[in-house]
Amino acid sequence: EDKVVQSPLSLVVHEGDTVTLNCSYEVTNFRSLLWYKQEKKAPTFLFMLTSSGIEKKSGRLSSILDKKELFSILNITATQTGDSAVYLCAVCPTHGSGNTGKLIFGQGTTLQVKP
Amino acid sequence: EAQVTQNPRYLITVTGKKLTVTCSQNMNHEYMSWYRQDPGLGLRQIYYSMNVEVTDKGDVPEGYKVSRKEKRNFPLILESPSPNQTSLYFCASSPRGQGRRNEQFFGPGTRLTVL
Fold first, then answer.
1. Which residue of B has its CA nearest to A88?
2. A90 to chain B: which residues are within 8 Å by CB?
3. Mean pLDDT rounded to a whole number for chain A
4. Least CA distance to A37: which residue of chain B?
5. What DSSP string describes B42-105?
6. With the CA atoms of B93, B96, B101 and B107 taken in that order, what torsion angle do they form, in degrees rounded to the nearest 10?
7. Virtual CA dihedral for A87, A105, A29, A66, nearest 10 degrees?
8. pLDDT, tens digit, 9 for 90 and up, residues B5-54
9. Are B43 and A43 an interchain contact pair (Cβ–Cβ within 8 Å)?
């Protein structure tokens, strides 16, 4: 059975700290891994990763994928209170021709950044 | 403005009373999906659609129906709602294209309570 597991499930840090969120997966025919941020509303897209070892970066956020060890990490440096949210990891399996809209989500990591 | 819209945003109903949650996107996306989000379980895919008249079951399709008669609309139908379908529902869409089909854009969510 395909599954995605995130850790930790929740995390409390102070502003300025650096955090690392983990996502491990077991998926038949992996295609891509995605990270989303959810703040009391709909998830918003952060990154999509398809290749091992290539870091994606956006401001203070960065992410990398290890397809051999089947995991990804999301790093947030110099955290701010506005980073408080649920961070979701999702994996897209490929199937047949590869044309699917299927996504398998992890449980999410709830990050709270205190002033 | 490019967006995914859902209606209603909030709904309280009773067991067995058929309901439909509408979803519409104005981005000409081929792929559309429905998810439910429950505490501790993350986002779980109910149904997805790769194009008009093409739909497939996600991980938790029981008790739900969908249709895709037009590209922009993807309604979710609960023929006979039960209390275990109380949840937060998200519709999402994504474009066709190498890798891009996974970058799903989410609607604002529909909070459904079944008494």
1. B42
2. 43
3. 91
4. B106
5. EEEEEEEEEETTEEEE-S--TT-EE--SSSSB--EEESS--GGG-EEEEEEEE--STTGGG-PE
6. -10
7. 20
8. 999 999 999 999 999 999 999 999 989 999 999 988 889 999 999 889 98
9. yes
